[in-house]
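It would be a great kindness if you could assist me with a short task in structural biology. The matter concerns a single protein, recorded as an amino acid sequence and a row of backbone structure tokens. Could you please explain, in whatever detail you think fit, how the structure tokens follow from the sequence? Thank you for your consideration; the sequence and its tokens are set out here:
___
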Amino acid sequence: MRPVNGIHHITAISGKAQENVDFYAGVLGMRLVKKTVNQDDPGTYHLFYADAIGTPGSDLTFFPWEQLAPPLSGHGLAVEASLEVPSRSLPFWATRLQKYGVTFSKLEKRFGKDVLPLVDPHGMRVALVADETNRPFEPWTDGPIPVAHQIRGLYGARLWERDVAETTAFLEKTLGFQKLGHDEGWTRYGFRNSAGIVDLRESPSERRGRWGIGAIHHLAWRVDDEEHQLAVRAQVEKAGPNATPVIDRFWFKSVYFKEPGGVLFELATDGPGFAVDEELAALGESLVLPPFLQPHREAIAGALPNITVPRLA
């Protein structure tokens, strides 16, 4: 079995694009490293927030589908995304969130780590986890957050499942996850040497969930290259789920499938990366399109709302 290498990115659905940028680039101080469009719906932005260079495992991305209704909570969805922050930085974050009127809850302990849960402007649940995993991270020295408190990358996600056993067997036997512990009704799976966990909770009495504004759309897992990707894709298909062919997203290559509980997963290659078409110093400043959409640039740009990146102190 070829295991995946941890988390690559998490993609969610937001409301208005400018409100999304104001929160993630402004309040949370993540760098907007790529301003592009949903390649299957080019009239919609695809916004990527990450560390200074868009290191795989640091990307939280959004489709601003503001016309959608709110999501329907239930099984078969990822219900919260978590972001890693340095140990002892949560007091800084509580003060900042309060300053900007962000809804957040009291400090929690989860699996022995301090966690600060919050809700973004469009209802998505996010948790800041004080931990320092062995992960690559490039600080953004020009950002609004001191380096000592910056978001390091994705920590993972919480999933509701109708039948946890089917999903856990798939995670372990097909993708190479390991069981890391159990806490307050949640079971954690992840990797000993790579960033990226999923916490699972069985909810057989819940209805089936549905995407909407504030919902997590999919979770993407890292693979080295296309050879690794194809090997894991073969394992997925052998286990039962139907996987898409490899799709070239220009900055990485993708394969999509649903795990047995219905959550949409992706296998994403580490490269070629976000600097393939922009200078690192200018990431996210201009609308960039993959080559197949370049002939339609004028029409695409004309249909998108203008957005500006705030610089909140």
About this structure: Residues 284 and 297 are 16 Å apart (CA to CA). The chain is about 15% helix and 35% strand.
